[in-house]
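Q: Joint fold for the lines below.
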Amino acid sequence: MIKIVFFAQLRERLECEQIQWDYVQGITAAHLKSQLSAQGGNWLALEESDVLCAINHEISALETIINDNDEVAFFPPVTGG
Amino acid sequence: MIKIVFFAQLRERLECEQIQWDYVQGITAAHLKSQLSAQGGNWLALEESDVLCAINHEISALETIINDNDEVAFFPPVTGG
Amino acid sequence: MISVQQQDFDCGHEYQQLREQGQGAIVTFVGLVRDFNQEGQIKGLHLEHYPQMTERALEQIVEQARQRWPLGKVRVIHRVGDLDGGDQIVFVGVASEHRDAAFSAAQFIMDYLKTQAPIWKKERSDIGEQWVASKSSDNDAVKKW
Amino acid sequence: MISVQQQDFDCGHEYQQLREQGQGAIVTFVGLVRDFNQEGQIKGLHLEHYPQMTERALEQIVEQARQRWPLGKVRVIHRVGDLDGGDQIVFVGVASEHRDAAFSAAQFIMDYLKTQAPIWKKERSDIGEQWVASKSSDNDAVKKW
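A: Joint structure:
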């Protein structure tokens, strides 16, 4: 399983803080994002705007391949500081 | 008259903090420095090393023309901060 | 040392800690919430973050700075939660033997923090809440390093 | 505000004064005397200056910074007289709405101060006194602006 977490306006628009998702070997973060948005409805928000990705608490490119039991985060551009 | 003041190692080498000097119309800070060092002895220190100039408390080029009653300062490169 | 915390910080105290090591130059940066009194209904900010990731991201940024410049103590504090106008948000303090290194490292840390630390600001006002938009100038600031 | 003084300063207090105006970014720089304990006989510094000129020179440097960047409060304190290892020498604090302006202005003020403020350092040691040589790197630092 993959743990997926969402933050800030993305979390609010998806009305979802975190979900579990079936692991498929060789899947990238980009694939995962497509699978999620293919669910339609709120999930289309993942395609609409800039979405950044972190894998296991490390900023990662969307092309990065995910391993089983990884924690994948999707979030909008950060605005701290 | 011109008031001339010296600082730091230059003051120490000249063994002089300040002197009065006759004003001559059209004289520049460079002329003044030459007149002083022409006195020989310690005064040669004015020619030996980098000497900066301020006229009336403002950093000035040695080519600047001095007016009567100006305060002219000669000093080594600054090392504050 | 990195802290991500709700509570406020004392810039003078943090400075004294940085001073202990006897380096010749200390640069501090503090980012504050704007003073909303002049700007209508905005009442304050809420800062959300990604708890398991924020400290680690900040540590990596400091580590990158250490690889570029000779640094002594480095301190980063970022507040999260609810803040009011004028409140302190972020502290970056850098000690070094060289003033250019201290200035550059503090600015580098802030520039990277602004684009890589998983923290998001939301403005609270009488008419609701609004996520703060990211600034392209912040992305540009990182490119200079 | 500019001060040239023998007495020490309190960085935390100066920071609070800069904070009053509600600007979003505050950068402070403090320069300290090196810790001589690791360096043999040096016991401390004496700072000589040109009393009627120093404040004026610092004011002009701050004025130049204001012409380049949008700044709020700016504070410069330079100590003169006898200092020991680890003592604070100089404080530069800049408030601005923009962090880049605050960083740049603080660094600009320090770079210019190092080459234009009429202040000279002499090291005191068991074997006598020695004027500190000026550094070409300080002249180079000014050229970047």
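Q: Anything notable?
A: Chains D and A do not touch (no CB pair under 8 Å). Chain D has a mean pLDDT of 93.
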